[in-house]
Amino acid sequence: MAAPIRSLCSALNQCQRYMTKQAPSSCLSSIFTYRRGHSVRFYATPSAANKVEKKEKSTSRKLTKEDLLEKRKDTSRLKPFGLTAWEPSDDVYVARFYPKPMVEPEIAIDMLKTFQKLDFTYEKQPVYTELKLDMKLEKKKKVDPFVGYVKYPYPFATEGNTVLVFTENAEDAQIAKDNGAAFVGGSELIQMILDEEIQADFYISTPDIVPKLNPLKNKLRKKFPKSKRGSVGPDIPKMLQLFKTCHEYLVESECLVKTKNSNSGYAL
């Protein structure tokens, strides 16, 4: 029995050698790639409960900016949440480690004047205000961004605004000139505005000529006369009184108003 078994083993070895010699390289590469495709895992897969716990921990650690500000308002703590102390112990400190100081507008203007003297900068620098508006309405609706006008009791601008009046009525044109309009005219001003021969800070119009001003929509954009903004109406003296001395502000980023409100040379 031993002899037939030995002869069978030798025959099988010879057949294997012959097959490996005759087999093309593509077959071997496909065999190896097939074997490589099956990866072997030597660790256990994490359970679903552990994944849920990790997700809950990650979501609980993340705090929004509003939540962070609310936590820092708690004055009963020894120090503000996430900061070093309530007040710095020295005049020179890293600002991000302490809460932002809150002062009255009068004190802030006086501080700004002091810093201007130390920095040798212009004494009448513009002062800007940043307001965050609540634009939410009922039923998850929001107020669309808008453009508004405000009239300060003590104007800080050295020069008034230039106002252009669109009208085709001779009487209205004379009234506009008498009330200080920089430019007055009808449809003949359209091409001059498109060619940038005439420019103004504000454009107002009477209701009868508004349909003829459509070619100026892309050119004037937000300055185009509209009844919602108060720049279209029959009362030309009232509109001129507003737009000659008003200050324009715009809602940015859905709820922010950043506008100039005074110069540092004026007292509040």
Question: What features would you describe in this structure?
Answer:
There is one protein chain. The protein has 268 residues and is α/β, with parallel strands linked by helices. Strands 1-7-6-2 form a four-stranded antiparallel β-sheet, with no helix packed on it. The N and C termini lie far apart (117 Å). The protein has nine helices and seven strands.
List the helices and strands and how they pair.
Blueprint: H1 2-22, H2 25-37, H3 48-61, H4 65-72, H5 105-119, E1 126-132, E2 147-150, E3 163-166, H6 170-178, E4 183-185, H7 189-194, E5 202-205, H8 217-220, H9 236-245, E6 247-252, E7 256-263
Parallel strand pairs: 3-4, 3-5
Antiparallel strand pairs: 1-7, 2-6, 6-7
Subcellular location: Mitochondrion
Keywords: Mitochondrion, Ribonucleoprotein, Ribosomal protein, Transit peptide
Pfam families: Ribosomal_L1
